Every structure is written in C-alpha cells, then in structure tokens.
TrEMBL record:
Organism of provenance: Upupa epops
UniProt keyword annotation of Cell inner membrane present: no
Active site per the UniProt annotation: 8 (nucleophile), 10 (proton donor)
Record keywords: Hydrolase, Magnesium, Metal-binding
Gene transcribed to yield this protein: Phospho2
Annotated residues for binding of Mg(2+): 8, 10, 179
Name this polypeptide is given: PHOP2 phosphatase
Amino acid sequence: MKFLLVFDFDHTIIDENSDTWIVKCAPEKKLPNGLRNSYQPGHWTEYMSRVFVYLGDNGVKEDEMKRTMATIPFTAGMVDLLGFIGENKDLFDCIIVSDSNTVFISWILKAADLHSVFDEVFTNPAAFSSAGYLTVQNFHSHHCTECPKNLCKRKVLKEFLDKQLERGVSYTQIIYVGDGGNDLCPVMFLKKDDIAMARQGYTLEKKIARLAQDLRPVECSVLVWSSAVDIMTYLKLLIKE
C-alpha cells in the first residue's frame, strides 16, 4: 500500500508565485497599469495570456524567461523534503496540481533536478508559438462554482484516483500540501484518514479555520506547516508506523 502526496506549486513548493515572478523579465520589471488592472477574478489564465503577449511584444525571449525562472526560491526545507520523497518512491506516489503552467513548472523542477520526484503534473498547458511568444491554455472545463474556470483541483484529484483504481492502485492515505484558496475544494473531498497540510498564515489555513468556526469542519485531519521540515517530520513518522 502506498501514500499519495498531492502538492500545490506556487507558495508551496516554491516560495513565490511563478506567474508574478516572470514580470522580472518585463521592461523596468513591471507591467503597465492597464494590463495589471485587467485581471478579473476567476480568469487568471486569460490575464497571464495578455502578460505573455506583452513580454513577447517587448522582445523577451524564451532563454531569458528560462534563466529568470531558474532563480525562483524554493520554500524553506522543500528541496530536502523532495529529496526524501525521491529516496522513498516505493512508498510515495507524488503529483502536482497547480494553476501555474507546464513550461514554468518543468523549467523550475529541472533546474533543481527535482522533476523525477513527481509522477504527474496537472497544470495549465503552455508552449511557445512559432513567433516565440509563450501561450497558455485552460487546463480543463468543469462545473464547480467554487473554483476558477480553468481548474478545479477536486476534479483533477478525483479523476487521478479513479484512473489509479482502474490500474489496481489504491492509497492508504492522501496527504494534500497547499496554501491557497483554490486548495480548499480538493481538501473538502478528502476523507477522515487523509491529511490536509495547510501552510501557516496563508488562505487555505484561514478558510479551514473559518469552516470549523461555522461548525462545518473538513472531514480530514489538518496539520499546519511553516517549513517543509514539518512535512518531512510527519512523513518519517508515517513510514515508521
């Protein structure tokens, strides 16, 4: 029997937002006000498409973007944690479910030689056009009213688990590591034996606390982490059992 680790990416694996980090490539390292103010809630992917057009129009090339993304810092203890998971792949399956994009995540993980830790990455598909512009698409369509229109992480998790069951793989426990508001929907899907690991001081922790106050607590156990060392400590206890 194996454990499934599900990781968010921005502000979880890395200590920044990869989409806002790319703005370091823009002229004067900032976006024009009109572009910055064009974001509409729930439509982040469309907003990032406009950002990538702006970068392309200003002559920002793929290699410059790639170099910039390789400088993004990992969250404290995360590189050690992912190394530990990599050494124990017989016990852990490990996936990423993220609102970033395939290009950024691949660059960042490969630069740190951590890509082989993850069995699958579910995120918005991105690619460079023939003109050298980065383009990004919505991950899927869904009917969840709680999630941004391009990605419902609960749907991704459910479909992954269903596919694994078809292959004869079921998990002793799911451990979900995240920080953001869009991590609440998959956390609500977890069962009582599962664990939600919410980053201390971030939106996910606050939303879970609010549900508990409203006497609508999540079904799974909740552990709060501030460094990935906290997560590693838990995993070490888990495999000792």
